[in-house]
Amino acid sequence: MLDATTARKPAHAAADHPAIKPAKVGVLLANLGTPDATDYWSMRRYLNEFLSDRRVIDYAPWKWQPLLQLIILSKRPFTSGAAYRSIWNTELNESPLMTITKQQTAAIAQRMQDMYGDQVVVDFCMRYGNPSTESKVQAMVDQGCRKILFFPLYPHYAGATSATANDQFFRALMKQEWQPIARVVEPYFEHPMYIEALAQSIERGYAAAEKKPEILVVSYHGMPKRYLMQGDPYHCQCQKTTRLLKERLGWDDTQIVTTFQSVFGPEEWLKPYTVDHVAELAKQGKKSIAICAPAFSADCIETLEEINEEIRESFEHAGGEDFLYIPCLNDDPAHVDALSTVISENLGGWATPL
After folding, report:
1. Model's pTM, two decimal places?
2. Mean pLDDT of the 312-316 span
3. What are the residue boundaries of the structural domains of the chain, listed by start?
4. Phi/psi of residue 219, nearest 5 degrees
5. Integer distance in angstroms from the first to the last C-alpha of the chain?
């Protein structure tokens, strides 16, 4: 008897009809990406792909590309490579984002196995670098996935994150002869289980701190203010996450503040800037602060290097004393439960729970 993974010809098909694998449902998790290594050329390839994305940098190519290719990519691979080396997982020879995404995928795959058995295939891809979105879509098709649920691992929608991940997913589908049916998971910035997982991580961080922080800085990745004015909902969604988190923790406005990090280029970005605001807090007499980064589903260069090194230094140089970084949710069981619930909610009608 053929097992559930064996390809076979449809009933009454001609002798030369190609075999078809039993239909499955794919769940494809997507994160931003990572360089393959920290050397100059690996960094340059990664940065070139990232900074050439019109969703990320929307300047006219005739103006932006000469600047990028001749100046930025001549220098930035060295500085970015050094930053990555400071956080690199040398044991596995990969970035922490890669390590954590693999852990998340394995944990979610186990949840899906428990809920749906062999009906659902779980994998991950990166928008930039490897494994590419196209390669993972192809792998799912090869495994017989006739339906794919695409899940950008960004709680908040932004054109430069969610939208460009979706763009790449649909580009990959365009290359398929027999195109799978597709769904895309909407942002989960206000999902009760996501808020609960965030709150629990903060409560654990505060409970373990030697000195209770005077204020929690909730730092989100920034974007040009112009994007907000053009209709991108990211800023509003970030503000709502902070409000829901504050309400869940039972705090008032003096105990929590929203800021934005990772400013790049000459134009104005969403404010207040995290790196400046933590220094201002120190000057105002706040000697002990905590900081978390809810927009990141996994710790990465922007959290492990930028927050825990650059932003920490800004606070301490301005007179701050106690700086507590609360890690991203990563593969915390409450986070895996939240993501698995979101997936299950989006698989309605596609997969039947056991």
Report:
1. 0.93
2. 97
3. 36-85, 192-325
4. -100, 120
5. 22
